[in-house]
Amino acid sequence: MKKPASLKDRATPFRQAHELGWRDFEPGFVLTEVASSRHYHTGDWRSKRPVWDTSRCIQCGVCWIYCPDAAVRRRPDGFFEADYDYCKGCGICARECVTQCIEMKDER
Amino acid sequence: MKSAIPKTVVVPPGHRRVGMEDSHAAALAVRQCNVDVVAAYPITPQTHIVEKLAEMVANGELDAEFVPVESEHSAMTVCVGAEAAGARTFTCTSSQGLILMSEVVYITSAMRLPCVMVLANRSLSGPLSIWCDHSDVMSIRDCGWIQTFAENGQEVYDLVFHAYRVAEMADVQTPVILNVDGFYLTHVVESLLVADQEVVDRYLPPYRPRHSLHPDRPVTMGAYGVPDLFTETKKAQDEALRATYPHIVRAWQEWGDLTGRHYHPVETYRTEGARVLLFTMGSIGQTAMVAVDTLREQGLPVGLVKLRLWRPFPHEDLRRAVAGAEHLLVLDRAVSFGGPGGPVASEVRSALYGQVDAPVVHDFIVGLAGRDVAVPDFEAMVREVLARKTAPRHEDYVIYGARE
Asked: Is the pLDDT of residue A71 over 90?
């Protein structure tokens, strides 16, 4: 039996899902690549994006704690930003921000 | 093709002949397959199988985990987890238990986990019934498991080994449901040929899963299928189930070579020169053979076709088996309410659609909730078919014996 190609052979399974044929899966749709969900860029669901006003940010990290998708990360300078590959734009960070320094801006 | 019913009492090498309840024969076969995990919830008429397995585990005769789950949904779920970890598993249910577990039944096949289930066929409620018909299995007709039917205790015993042999083949990796008519088979004591363990060990190799859950070899099982992939996963599943057919046949051939007991996707009995063919699944085939003998003695050219393999459906074997007959009298043991006749007749009509000189299909729904279908009933149905002046339409069916 020809060994089916694994999802591992694809750099970005989600973005290129439409390129996969039915023979390309392991039996039972078993995924052999660890943490392959990284390739699933849920950020493209977003209709609004969080934008930080660092002049008012006190670096408390509440946004980082509350983000349900672990899509907020700390920059080397201590301020926070969203990883827009995965941020779905839910707005929880903006709602919880102590100084209200996060604005949800429309995606265009 | 000849009947699988042994005509002699000769004990073949590697066997002994014992009197045993068919349920206990099923349990014995599961034990001889040396399963690792049994998860099941007792429900009539499957109970004796589970009870016997629990006893075997408690007595140390079977080195397995017996998980006394709180529901059938959990039973199937435990099997999924255990299969994912690489264990050989068994479950067993009936009727309401099956439809409670049905959510996970579909997942098991989609994940290609080769679990084996014995389904002691019983009507679905309501009204409440514990007796045999095929409404339970028909409710999960499209669940993606390989589905076989047994006709007597010997077949129950033999087909358990076949189920594991096929399910775990590297090119199959698909779960198997073995249908066993409730009470007609589960609760009768028959004279059976029991194979020595050495015979079983020659037939059934140890289970080597392609993937299993292990911290050193992480994989994801049961992942989300995004819409861009879902259609392809279903195509893969369907192709895989269709591709099991030659392996199913090969595994029966191997068992036949070892034991002398041969099985086929479609089996026939006295079909030569038959104008009318009866078409059965399960234990009713035994009575049908007696009916064929009786009707032949009366000069009626009647034969019998028995379907052993329900999924993947053996279209070609069926067409070959019924070729030349004028009438095909299909006996359904379930109703497809408001649909095109019983589920079996619908499949048979589809298989024959557009075929030149195909027999006319007559659909009789019989034997609901264990109502007896005796030789005179077969005789009455055959005579009714022969007396019909016009062929029934594609969607016509009769619920036989229903009182006005």
From this structure: yes
